[in-house]
């Protein structure tokens, strides 16, 4: 994997990340394809919307379809049919949030499947092996995601373990076809975060993620830690803020120097009827859209907005029609893709601050939150 920062505007960076299966401009947003598909849209549509990097997840792929089938298929690309770049989260976060966590030891994590209760074990070495064997472009290391709130002692302990596991992950590598990113932990404690950055930066990772945020902490804490960590990470490596977020959060983090994002918000919200527009979010279920024959967002040129009205989308949604999820997802992912494109253009022109101010002013001017 190669990464190049081409232009800086303040701390915001425009760059290009190249991997085995293509390249993406940064800052970028990765649609979430947990099970090897982005819910509600096919790969051709993902590609048409300009996305060339998607996120998947070791925890989920390991449970279903499992390593054997993925290997028999020749890897995750032939199995899923996606031609672009894939980054996999290790599943550490899912083990904490989804499965029944049994115990964490220095060796790794023992957990029960959320599907059938069967017992499993992840070590840092196994996660790297899995990511290499299925042929992802970027694999995240196994980390211990510090919950919020956590005491200083707890956060320190899990940060130090995350660093030890990162070192084991690097040692377990057998190929450079799969790039490995480390994850900075340390809760909301400045000194722990800085210590973690210092120790991880010495190791030969291709990129660094900021983990353990967007887990319930106040927004100003999230922004503070993001700014602190981003300012100390190596300049020449991509920086990825995991699980974030909302358009306003992405803008804050880009300003701090973050290059990569993922979040379930655009796809999950689409399935719940919440749509993003340049004037804020709307809830398509609302009765006020019953006779609203205008598009979701007059400024959007996605397939949904060019062809269908709010009234029609509301009708599909309240009738439980599967097209509601599809058309809403197309719009929301298009909105995020457009936001990232506009951010990149603004950085290239040295006008990121101006863009951010204008976007937020308009985005909060909304006809209401639906
Ligand atoms: Zn649209």
UniProtKB/TrEMBL annotation:
Region called RNA binding, residue ranges: 243-249, 267-271
One GO MF term attached to the UniProt entry: metal ion binding
Pathway named in the protein's UniProt entry: tRNA modification; tRNA-queuosine biosynthesis
EC number: 2.4.2.29
Domain tRNA-guanine(15) transglycosylase-like: 11-364
Binding positions (Zn(2+)): 300, 302, 305, 331
Any Pfam family matching the protein: TGT
GO BP annotations listed: tRNA queuosine(34) biosynthetic process
Binding locations of substrate: 89-93, 143, 185, 212
Leader peptide range in chain numbering: none
UniProt keyword list: Glycosyltransferase, Metal-binding, Queuosine biosynthesis, Transferase, tRNA processing, Zinc
Cofactor note: Binds 1 zinc ion per subunit.
Alphabetical list of SUPFAM superfamilies matching this protein: tRNA-guanine transglycosylase
Cofactor dependence: Zn(2+)
InterPro entries reported in the protein's UniProt record: ArchSynthase1/Queuine_TRR (IPR050076), TGT (IPR004803), TGT-like_sf (IPR036511), tRNA_ribo_trans-like (IPR002616)
Active site: 89 (proton acceptor), 262 (nucleophile)
Gene Ontology cellular-component terms listed: cytosol
Highest taxon of source: Bacteria
Reaction catalysis annotation: 7-aminomethyl-7-carbaguanine + guanosine(34) in tRNA = 7-aminomethyl-7-carbaguanosine(34) in tRNA + guanine
Similarity comment: Belongs to the queuine tRNA-ribosyltransferase family.
Record text on subunit structure and interactions: Homodimer. Within each dimer, one monomer is responsible for RNA recognition and catalysis, while the other monomer binds to the replacement base PreQ1.
Function description: Catalyzes the base-exchange of a guanine (G) residue with the queuine precursor 7-aminomethyl-7-deazaguanine (PreQ1) at position 34 (anticodon wobble position) in tRNAs with GU(N) anticodons (tRNA-Asp, -Asn, -His and -Tyr). Catalysis occurs through a double-displacement mechanism. The nucleophile active site attacks the C1' of nucleotide 34 to detach the guanine base from the RNA, forming a covalent enzyme-RNA intermediate. The proton acceptor active site deprotonates the incoming PreQ1, allowing a nucleophilic attack on the C1' of the ribose to form the product.
NCBIfam families according to UniProt: Q_tRNA_tgt, tgt_general
Stated name of the protein: Queuine tRNA-ribosyltransferase
Originating species: Phorcysia thermohydrogeniphila
């Amino acid at each position: 994997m190669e990464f190049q920062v081409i232009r800086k505007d303040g701390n915001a960076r425009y760059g290009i990340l190249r991997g085995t299966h293509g390249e993406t401009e940064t800052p970028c947003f990765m649609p979430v394809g947990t099970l090897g598909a982005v819910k509600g849209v096919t790969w051709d549509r993902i590609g048409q919307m300009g996305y060339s990097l998607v996120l998947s997840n070791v925890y989920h792929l390991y449970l279903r379809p499992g390593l054997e089938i993925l290997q028999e298929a020749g890897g995750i690309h032939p199995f899923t049919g996606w031609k672009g770049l894939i980054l996999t989260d290790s599943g550490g976060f899912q083990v904490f949030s989804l499965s029944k966590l049994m115990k964490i030891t220095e060796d790794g994590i023992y957990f029960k499947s959320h599907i059938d209760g069967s017992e499993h074990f992840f070590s840092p070495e196994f996660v790297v092996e899995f990511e290499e064997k299925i042929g992802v472009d970027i694999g995240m290391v196994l980390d211990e995601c510090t919950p919020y709130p956590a005491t200083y002692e707890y956060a320190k302990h899990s940060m130090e373990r995350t660093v030890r596991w990162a070192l084991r992950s690097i040692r377990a590598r057998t190929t450079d076809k799969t790039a490995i990113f480390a994850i900075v932990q340390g809760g909301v404690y400045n000194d722990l975060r800085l210590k973690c950055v210092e120790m991880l930066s010495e190791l030969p990772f291709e990129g660094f993620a900021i983990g353990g945020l967007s887990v319930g902490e106040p927004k100003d804490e999230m922004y503070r830690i993001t700014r602190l960590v981003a300012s100390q990470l190596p300049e020449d490596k991509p920086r990825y803020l995991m699980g974030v977020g909302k358009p306003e959060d992405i803008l804050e983090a880009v300003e701090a120097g973050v290059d990569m994002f993922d979040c379930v918000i655009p796809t999950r919200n689409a399935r719940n009827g919440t749509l993003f527009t340049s004037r804020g979010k709307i809830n398509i279920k609302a009765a006020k859209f019953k006779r609203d024959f205008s598009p979701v967002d007059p400024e959007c040129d996605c397939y949904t907005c060019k062809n269908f009205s709010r009234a029609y989308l509301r009708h599909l949604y309240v009738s439980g029609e599967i097209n509601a999820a599809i058309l809403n997802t197309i719009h929301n992912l298009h909105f995020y893709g457009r936001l990232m494109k506009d951010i990149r253009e603004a950085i290239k022109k040295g006008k990121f601050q101006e863009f951010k101010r204008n976007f937020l002013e308009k985005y909060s001017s909304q006809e209401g939150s639906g």
